[in-house]
């Protein structure tokens, strides 16, 4: 049983990695351009740009844990393969540059709406990156860039595998796990654990209703991943301001984006079984926290604050440290069709970031 889960997870996590790092691979140049604005503004810009993807991913990880309101009996088990995804609301497909309080980025106030990473596939407003010249106290242009485009889709599907096992007292444990895997410039590992407990047994009136079940569920998923395809080198126009060490080949290697997502969820779910069909519904709470870090050295042009006040290349070490959190309540409904040891199921949760899940299961439950 665990061997089957490991096999499926080994393939599922690299696929997940490709989905997660589409943003990083597509936007690696923009990441470098953002960093030319300095540490403070880069964190604001990147945070506004990637936060909807963080929420979509986190709430997706909280989906697909169960496919009925009944806990499996002692010794029963199943192995599931499924995909779950959260839909980004329209209001989170763009962000307003004016709301960020940028200090080293100038833009046209009449054109300040930019796409987020899950927004439209079109470039955002033109941005002018500036640095303060200490000789005259004026902001001088360092470079012009466009705010990066969106991916062009608002649904981020996440494939996963899971094994569930029935315990005593109408209790069921579920485990998600993948060993650390590498795929091209991506590496990642995932694990999660959930517990479902039937409360019908503790409520005499409900326990008398045949085919009706009600359970409480709690689950936690942890995803760690890294993308090492970032390659932000000195721009040709900036080489005149760099030191001999900064000009050395390989000086700006080992750049990476590291992502850690922690997702907690709790549900109260009831189900009714009629022959091979089970319908279930309930309420779900989803809480997520994502840490995104840009690691390594990145070149940024600045002015020296002491004589001779000349331009130079500053090395920003580990310049981006973002912590993004979100939580939401939702109403969940789903159906499961079970034929012998094979089952198909799908569910939908209506919420701020609504999620949908669909999958197949094998086992005796």
UniProtKB/TrEMBL annotation:
Residues 1-27 form the signal peptide. InterPro entries: DUF6588. Keywords: Signal. This is Uncharacterized protein.
